[in-house]
Amino acid sequence: MVQTLKGIPMAMRIVRLPGIHHDANAVLLMGSNEALLIDSGTAWYQLLQQERIVGQLGETVKLREIVLTSRRYPFSGGCLSIAQHFGNAPISAHSSAKSSLSTGDFFTTWANRYDSDMPRFEVIGLGTNEVKFLDEEAVEIIEAPGPSSCNLLIHIPSAKTVIAGALLPRADRLMRWDVPTGNLLDGQESLEKLRDLRPEKLVPMHGPTLQGRRHISETIERHIQALEQIIASKGSVPQSWQKPADTSLWHEPVPAWPRVEQETDQANGKSRN
Predict the structure, then answer these.
(1) Domains (ranges, CATH) in the chain?
(2) C-alpha span between 172 and 256 (Å, rounded)
(3) What is the predicted pLDDT for the residue at 4?
C-alpha cells in the first residue's frame, strides 16, 4: 500500500503513501525509533491512512510529529484524527497557517470546495527555514509561497529528495495562484528555489515520485517558463487552457505536458514507480 524510495544509501526510510482521489500524497520519514509524517490527506480516508502508517511503523517506531506543507484540505483534513490515534502527536505548519487551522476556516483551507468539515486543531508554528533531525539526518523545512502563503518544501539532503506538495502538483499540472493567499510571483521564485536544490527524487502533490536529476530539472524548468509567460501576460493563462475544476489546486496545460510517471492503483496504494 506504499512506495518506498529505493536506492538511497542511508538509515532514513522515505515512504510515500499515495494520495487517493483528492488526497495529496503523504510521506513518512522514518528513523530507527521515530518518524515524521509529512501531510495527512483529507478526512475522507483517514482510517485507511492510519492503517497504512501503523503497518509501516510497526511496534518499534513512534510517530514523533506531523508536518503540514499546506493548510489546504487535501493536505491537512485528516491530520487531527491521525494525530489523536498516535497519542496526540504534535502538528506543525507554517506560522501563517495557525489561525486557519485552529478555527477550521473553510475559506483558506478550501474545505468548502469539498463539501467537508474542516477539523479544528492547534499547530506549532514553524520558524523560517527550520531544520529537524531523524537519527542525525537533517530534514530541512523551506518556505515556498505561491500556492499559498503557508506553503513549504521538505528537503532531505542525504537522500537528495524534496517533497514539493502544492508547488508542483504533478509533472503535467501547473500550480494555481488564483486561490486564497496564493501569489504568482512568489510561485515563480519558489520554483526557482526548488530547482536550485537539484533533487534526484521529487515527491509531487499527486502521483508517483519523479526520479532522475535531469528529468526533474527539465520538469521544474517547464513550470518556471510557464509562470514567466503568464506573468508577462499580466496573469492571464493561455486561452486554450480550460478553467480549473472547483476542487483543483492546479491548471491543466493544453496541449498536455509530458508525464512519465503513472499511478497504477491509488485505492490500493500500488505503484510501479
Answers:
(1) 3-259 (3.60.15.10)
(2) 7
(3) 54
Whether the pTM exceeds 0.90: the reply is yes
* CB atoms closer than 10 angstroms to residue 246: 9
Distance CA 15, CA 56 (A): 8
The residue assigned the cell 510517530 is 63
- How many whole angstroms separate alpha carbon 59 and alpha carbon 86? 12
pLDDT higher than 80, residue 8: no
SS3 124: strand
Beta strands at 152-156 and 161-165: parallel, antiparallel or unpaired:
antiparallel
- Return the pLDDT at 5: 55
Residue at grid coordinates 537533517: 138
| 126-151: pLDDT as tens digits | 988 899 999 999 999 999 999 999 99
- 3-class DSSP state for residue 153? strand
Q: Is 193 helix (H, G, I), strand (E, B) or coil?
A: helix
Which distant-in-sequence residues (6+ apart) come within 8 Å of 227 by Cβ?
A: 174, 184, 187, 188, 191
pLDDT in tens, 60-80: 999 999 999 999 999 999 999
Chain centroid to CA 66: how far?
Answer: 12
What is the phi/psi pair of residue 101, to 5°?
-75, -35
> Which residue is it, cell 532522475?
212
